[in-house]
Design a protein that fits this description.
This protein is α/β, with parallel strands linked by helices and 461 residues long. The protein has 17 helices and nine strands.
């Protein structure tokens, strides 16, 4: 009986097993093809992500140049081929603003040279000690003139940064003396002598350095250069007093944000990972400030106490650091007051010497909306030229064929090319030679380039 039941139950199992074997035989050859399709889709997805992240489908182009049509601008276009030549970044990664910015932040430059100069210490009226490094030219300038680059680095930077060393070495070889400000509190192993550090727009140390150069080299001409935050300080310095522009040939800034208030608002946004950059920069600033904790707390007349340092330790953004510590170095009543008074936007319209403003469209730290400010300045002021590259990131501007970047960047060469052109322009104007205040001189003879483009677009419609 039991045996009979077993036969009864097993009899339908045989056809089922046969059916399953038949199914496996039918679908078996199709399974590898299906898996191959999944693999191809995965590879295609990865390639798509790589192409999008590295921006490989982006084309190279000459920089966009916004300016008024003047005698000076026509001269600059003849003397500066880089204004009309394509900027070609390294093929595999150079079109990504994030990678350009990351490489600048991590290593600065490739094979940065060793510089040989002198460190100068200047006593400030409030007891602070400003420091800058002086590097003599390694040859004569092409015009035969004595020209000094007075350089203001980016946030928390100094003369020992790789990108500064590379730029200074190149300038020296082109016949320029270089003076590089070390932001107050930025140099390692150099103690503060007053209860304050550098801030977004304090020009005191930079003014002291420029004053020293003018006194020590009474016949030198000056080229004012500012990188990122240093660009804000440089422009603000020139606009604060007319006398600050004496013997200044021109001003060059690279990758500045122009308005601290509007820039910090964009730093709270997540697009282009800007909030992440904000966190990283805030962490670096926090460590820099805390390295001077004993000086900030121990010196008399300090506006910084344990409460402020407690807020500093909890800060996750530059705005929180500025509100808890930085604005109090100069007694600003609020964060808005600090940003408004320390921004160059309130001073740059008073600058009459030629101004060369350089930015990159894919700079993850400078929001696109901030670039309307230099564009408007160039449209309204005949002495301002705004240059916008398609690639470059934040202070990257690496060049190279495929993978490895070159030691010199597009930024280094563009600044020196513009400075050389301005030296030649000055040489050709004997009535406005040394000793007198430099006038930008360009008289408007036509519409701005942007206005011409808008007029053409309107007529096409």
């Amino acid at each position: 009986m039991y045996f009979h039941q077993s036969q009864t139950r097993s009899s339908p199992a045989a056809p089922m097993s046969a059916l399953e074997d038949g199914d496996m035989g039918t679908f078996g050859p199709e399974l590898p093809a299906m898996f191959d399709g999944v693999k191809l889709a995965a590879v295609a997805t990865v390639l798509y992500v790589i192409v999008r992240c590295l921006n490989l489908n982006s084309t190279t182009a000459p920089p966009e140049v916004v300016h008024q049509v003047t005698a000076l601008s026509r001269y600059l276009f003849k003397s500066c081929p880089m204004l009309t030549k394509e900027y070609v970044p390294p093929l595999l990664w150079g079109k990504s603003g994030h990678i350009q910015t990351a490489l600048y932040g991590k290593m600065g430059r490739v094979n940065a040279p060793t510089l040989h100069g002198f460190r100068k210490f200047l006593a400030m009226p409030d007891g602070a000690t400003a420091t800058f490094d002086l590097f003599e030219a390694l040859g004569d300038h092409s015009t035969g003139d004595d020209v000094t680059m007075v350089i203001c680095p980016g946030i928390g930077n100094h003369s020992e940064q790789n990108y500064i060393r590379t730029f200074v070495d190149y300038c020296q070889r082109q016949g320029y003396r270089c003076a590089v400000l070390n932001h107050l509190g930025a140099l390692p192993n150099v103690e503060l002598t007053s209860p304050r550090m550098f801030t977004y727009g304090c020009t005191w140390e930079y003014a002291a350095m420029v004053g020293y150069i003018k006194q020590a080299f009474p016949h030198t001409l000056l080229v004012v250069v500012g990188f990122s935050l240093g660009g804000n300080i440089a422009c603000k310095f020139l606009g604060e007093r007319p006398s600050n522009q004496d013997r200044v040939l021109c001003c060059v800034t690279v990758c500045q944000g122009y308005s601290a208030l509007r820039a910090q608002e964009t730093f709270l946004q997540w697009d282009q990972c800007r909030r992440l950059y904000n966190f990283v920069l805030a962490d670096r600033m926090k460590k820099l400030i805390l390295s001077h904790r004993s000086s900030l707390l121990g010196l008399n007349s300090s506006n910084i106490g344990d409460v402020e340092l407690g807020k500093l330790c909890a800060a996750t953004s530059l705005m929180q650091i500025d509100d808890s510590v930085m604005r109090k170095f100069h007694g600003h009543s609020s964060l808005k007051d600090y940003y408004e008074k320390e921004s160059c936007l309130n001073y740059i319209h008073k600058v009459s010497v030629p101004v060369f403003l350089v930015n990159s469209s894919d700079d993850p730290l400078v929001h696109q909306s901030l670039l309307e400010m230099p564009r408007t300045l160039a449209e309204k002021m005949p002495n301002v030229m705004f240059v916008l590259t398609q690639h470059g990131g934040h202070l990257g501007f690496f060049e190279g064929a495929m993978l490895l970047p070159q030691p010199l960047t597009w930024m280094d060469k563009a600044i020196v090319e513009y400075a050389d052109a301005m030296c030649g322009w000055e040489k050709s104007r004997p009535a406005c030679r040394r000793g007198a205040r430099r006038d930008a001189g360009p008289e408007r003879t036509g519409p701005t380039i942007s206005a011409q483009k808008r007029a053409k677009a309107t007529s096409d419609l």
